Amino acid sequence: MTSPDDDSAATASSSASPSAPETFSDRIYRSPSGIAGGVLLLALGGWLGIDAMIRGEGRTPWLALAGLLCAVPVVIAFTVRPSVHAGQDRLLVRNPFRTITLPWASVEGVRAGYTSEVLAGGAKYQLWAIPVSLRQRKRAARHQARAASEDPFGRTSAHVSANKPDEDRRAPSDVAMGDLREMAETNAHREGAQGAPEVRWAFEIIAPTLAGAVLLAIMLAIG
User: Fold this and answer.
1) DSSP string, 150-209
2) How high is the pLDDT of residue 113?
3) For residue 177, which of 39, 112, 166, 215 is within the disulfide window of CB 3.0 to 4.6 Å?
4) pTM
5) What is the structure's pLDDT at 170?
6) 21 φ, ψ to 5°?
7) Phi/psi class of residue 154: alpha, beta or left (left: φ > 0; alpha: ψ in -120 to 50)?
């Protein structure tokens, strides 16, 4: 048995919940093959570099140190670092040497030709985390054409099969770009999605790379 206070509290809670804004976690896009290749390169480079620093003689340890200091940030920048975070209010793009924050209202369009790109504020930004594979795109097109020829009722679309409605037949990059395009159209009118694009240089990557390059140039010059 409930008291009137409990009933009023339950009513207030039920009436407040529909109007409460829904929150969703960010969608994160990365390139698994890029990350795997980067980890392998880091492991191989670390093994060779550390071995040279331990067993090398003369200038070899210093050259190995300079090479690692210059190469490791570059490998991380192009393989592990790239990502795309799509939230309710903005699109956060982490490219090798820049981080771009794009409120949805500033996004003018997204497209995937030979590369994945987002247009915002009159500028074009490449999405390194969503690589375009022409092989996967051709495979998806062949799969769709085969499914359409086997469907006598013409129910198969370019994206979804009639027999498997939960299966998206597009290439992974096209699926991701379709999701981003839909989020841009849906969230552009949100209050928190207003603003201009912001670009920040990734000095945590640039600084050690330049330091390693300078050290390597000095070691080669004095040798």
Assistant:
1) T-TT----SSB-SS-TT-B-S-HHHHHHHHHHHHHHHHTTSGGG-S--EEEE-HHHHHHH
2) 82
3) 112
4) 0.74
5) 75
6) -65, 135
7) left
